[in-house]
UniProtKB/TrEMBL annotation:
This is Lipoprotein signal peptidase. GO terms for biological process: proteolysis. InterPro entries: Peptidase_A8. It comes from Streptococcus pneumoniae. Its EC number is 3.4.23.36. It catalyses: Release of signal peptides from bacterial membrane prolipoproteins. Hydrolyzes -Xaa-Yaa-Zaa-|-(S,diacylglyceryl)Cys-, in which Xaa is hydrophobic (preferably Leu), and Yaa (Ala or Ser) and Zaa (Gly or Ala) have small, neutral side chains. Belongs to the peptidase A8 family. PROSITE patterns: SPASE_II. The chain crosses the membrane at residues 20-37, 44-63, 83-104. One of its GO terms (cellular component) is membrane.
Length: 111
């Protein structure tokens, strides 16, 4: 279902009202991901996809935090007890999972 929530914290609403901390961490992660993506554009499609999703999710939440002082979360999974989240959170989560799988695959293949 859709539920409007002003999240002034991180995942699961932890560390409430630490906007400067989140802004700095997000900028460091996004800049690092952009740098890594630029250096490794020739790498696997999955590595590029994972990094792109992480960058998009990070920037989405960053824009909300800077412009509004909070992130708007809206998706509530009624069938399980889980935190309310937004599209950017989904991008970040899926991006990290894809990136971890791509890195594990590279490690196994010896690349």
């Amino acid at each position: 279902s859709l539920t409007y929530l002003q999240n002034r914290g991180a995942a699961f609403s932890i560390l409430q009202d630490q906007q400067l901390l989140f802004a700095v961490i997000t900028l460091v992660v996004v800049i690092g991901a952009i740098w890594y993506l630029h250096k490794h554009m020739e790498d696997s499609f999955w590595m590029v996809l994972g990094l792109t999703l992480i960058i998009a999710g990070g920037l989405g939440n960053f824009i909300d935090r800077v412009s509004q002082g909070f992130v708007v979360d809206m998706f509530h999974l009624d069938f399980i007890n889980f935190a309310i989240f937004n599209v950017a959170d989904s991008y970040l989560t899926v991006g990290v999972i894809i990136l971890l799988i791509a890195m594990l695959k590279e490690e196994i293949n010896g690349n």
